[in-house]
Design brief:
Oligomer: single chain
Structural class: mainly alpha
Number of domains: 2
Shape: elongated
Number of strands: 0
Number of helices: 9
Length: 219
């Protein structure tokens, strides 16, 4: 009788052990599945974000590569070269910037007067050919790019791979020297808009990025 009791106790102990071990195995299995499911979900999310980022980048590049943008950029640089040539290629930045603004404002006012004399149905077409319109196109684009850079929507390595120092130099050489006095002229006493600092920061960040990239590692 005592042997039977001992045998029952033996089976009961081992049954509890087997059940406990089985529960542990199932728990580990569930945790493993949850871990890999989490990894897979993270990778899927990262992949989706990359697709979204590159789609956004594609749209921006498409905008930058448009014929209208090309014409706007080309017109602004031609304007800059013409003014610089008048000053006999002066290296004095202040004189060049002052001349840029004065000539720009003169052309802007002439265009405004001419457009007012146009028939209403012809005004839009004429407006699209003005230096003022071209400057706005380029300025609005770089304001958008500067905002993207600030908010880190796209990595700076990607941004500066597509827009280098030469592309962005239009900001300090043409856009800002015109927009600062223009804003002060249109809105006396008002603080400068944030877009000015944003565009400056974008250009400065590009210079810093390029300088770090060009530094060769120490032996």
């Amino acid at each position: 009788m005592s042997d039977l009791i001992s045998l029952c106790s033996f089976f009961r102990i081992h049954s509890n052990f087997i059940i406990g071990f089985g529960t542990l195995v199932v728990t580990i299995g569930i945790l493993g599945i949850a871990f890999w499911a989490g990894k897979l979900a993270k990778k899927s999310l990262e992949a989706a974000e990359k697709v979204k980022t590159y789609q956004f980048l594609t749209d921006i590049i498409s905008n930058y590569s448009s014929a209208e943008m090309l014409l706007a950029v080309r017109t602004l640089w031609e304007f800059h070269r013409e003014i610089k040539k008048r000053l006999e290629d002066t290296i004095k930045k202040e004189l060049l910037e002052k001349a840029l603004w004065e000539e720009y404002d003169k052309i802007r006012k002439q265009d405004e007067c001419e457009i007012k004399l146009q028939q209403p149905e012809r005004r839009l077409a004429r407006e699209k050919t003005t230096l003022h319109h071209y400057r706005r196109i380029v300025s609005n684009f770089y304001e958008l790019l500067a905002g993207i850079h600030k908010e880190e929507v796209i990595k700076k390595e990607i941004i500066f791979n597509y827009w280098n120092k030469e592309n962005l130099s239009i900001i300090p050489k043409i856009i800002i020297p015109i927009e600062v006095p223009l804003f002060k002229h249109l809105y006396p006493g008002a603080p400068l808009p944030e877009k000015i600092n944003l565009m400056r920061s974008l250009y400065c960040a590009c210079l810093k990025y390029k300088s770090k990239k060009n530094v060769s590692p120490q032996d």
